[in-house]
Specification:
- By secondary structure, the protein is α+β, with helices and mostly antiparallel strands.
- The chain contains three helices and six strands, in the order ββββββααα.
- β5 and β6 form a beta hairpin.
């Protein structure tokens, strides 16, 4: 028993009608998938798997045996930039993606449609009353209604 959901199902919709469906699960002992699926009129892609299937033959990027993980490269580039005094500032798109995730959480916990402005202007505060060692009040499990 906890105070967070162990799975989420979210549909994000942009003004131009584009939709993205996002599903996550945090349950021990279950098959869990981390992937970004893109579906279009001419094909589909599994982004992290580097797989594209369209009108022609399916294509998949074949990673050379010694090629590092994109996550390792991201950190190597960041550390090199810091050492060289050349700031890499991904703050804008990182803040947008974080707000998008917050919107999904708010929608799942409330059962309501959440707009960008609603999330951006929300007064919801999930931080503890005070930061100190000791017991922390555990919130009740959210019940959408």
């Amino acid at each position: 028993m906890g105070h967070i959901y162990d799975h989420f199902a979210t549909c994000y919709e942009w003004e131009n009608g584009v939709k993205m469906y996002s599903y996550t699960r945090q349950m021990p002992g279950c098959k869990n998938t981390v992937e970004d699926y893109m579906l279009g009129t001419k094909g589909r892609a599994e982004v992290l798997r580097n797989y594209v299937q369209g009108e022609g033959e399916p294509w998949q990027y074949k990673k050379p045996p010694n090629e590092p993980s994109m996550y390792d490269v991201e950190h190597q580039e960041l550390f090199a930039a810091i050492r060289a005094g050349q700031t890499i500032n991904n703050g804008t798109y990182m803040s947008y993606s974080t707000l998008l995730a917050i919107m999904g959480r708010m929608a799942c916990y409330t059962g309501q449609e959440i707009t960008w402005d609603m999330a951006l202007n929300s007064k919801e505060d999930l931080s503890p009353e005070k930061y100190e060692w000791g017991d922390v009040k555990i919130p009740e499990v959210a019940m959408p209604a």
